[in-house]
Amino acid sequence: MAICELRDTCKHYGSDATLVRALDQVSLAFEPGEFTVISGPSGSGKTTLLNMVGCLDVPTSGTVLVEDHDVSRLGSRALAKIRANRIGFIFQSFNLIPVLTALENVELALQLSGHNGNRRQKAMELLAAVGLGDMIRRRPNQLSGGQQQRVAVARALVKDPALVIADEPTANLDTENGRQVLDIMRRMNAERGVTFLFSTHERLVIDMARRVVTLQDGRVVGDETQNAAKEA
C-alpha cells in the first residue's frame, strides 16, 4: 500500500481571468521507505503538493489518499489527528518554540500526539540520535542553525511517523550543515524505514535523493529514480 497517492489531483485558486492552477491533473504514488525530492522552479506547485500530502489542504478536484484515507472526505478534526500522529514536518525556518529547550520542543510533539509512554526518555533518545545529546537544555537562540534543524528533525521523528515532509529543509543552512542534516535524515530513512518527501530546488538535496519528481506549472514533467551510486 502506498503511503500517499494523488489521483488526477487539481488545486485551483481564484476564478476566470485570475484562475491559478497550482496543481493540474497530478497523479503520483509514494511508497513506504522512499527518500524523494519534489523539484521545480518557484511557483511550480511543490509546496501545494506537500500541503495536500501533509493534510494541510484539500484538492479542488481529484483524490489525495494518505494511508488509504481520502483527505477530501475528512473533517478538520480527523485531518489534525493524522497530522499529529502519522506525519512529521520539517521547515526551512525550523519553527522551534523559542522559550522551550531542545528537549521540551521535541517532547511537545509527543504530548500533542497523545503519546502515553515516557515522553522525556524518548525525546532524549531522538536528540542523542541526531547528535545533540549534550545540548538538550539549550534554547533555540543558544543553538546554531544546523543544530536547530537537527532539533526539528528529532521533533518530526519522535512520534514514529509514517511520513516526514521536509519543505526546503536546507534553505537556511550553509553547505556543510545542510549536508550533515541530510545525512542524518538519510540514516533515519535507512534505519527506521521512514518515508521522506522533500521540496527543494537545491542541487545538494536533489543529488542525495533516490527519486526526483519534477513539477512545472503545476504538472509533473519528470519522475526519475536516481543512480544507487549516490547512496554513498
Task: Provide the fold topology.
Blueprint: E1 4-13, E2 20-30, E3 35-39, H1 46-53, E4 61-66, E5 69-70, H2 76-86, E6 87-91, H3 102-113, H4 119-129, H5 145-157, E7 163-167, H6 175-192, E8 195-200, H7 203-208, E9 211-216, E10 219-225
Helix pairs in contact: 3-4, 3-5, 4-5, 5-6
Structure description:
- The longest helix has 18 residues, at 175-192.
- Helix 3 packs across helix 4 and helix 3 packs parallel to helix 5.
- The chain starts with a strand and ends in a 7-residue tail after the last strand.
- It has helices at residues 46-53, 76-86, 102-113, 119-129, 145-157, 175-192, 203-208, and strands spanning 4-13, 20-30, 35-39, 61-66, 69-70, 87-91, 163-167, 195-200, 211-216, 219-225.
- Strand 7 (163-167), helix 6 (175-192) and strand 8 (195-200) form a beta-alpha-beta unit.
- It has seven helices and ten strands.
- It has a six-stranded mixed beta sheet, sandwiched between helices. The protein has a four-stranded antiparallel beta sheet with strand order 2-1-4-5, covered by helices on one side.
- By secondary structure, the protein is α/β, with parallel strands linked by helices.
- The protein has a single domain (31-57, 70-226), classed as Rossmann fold, CATH 3.40.50.
- It is globular and about 55 Å long.
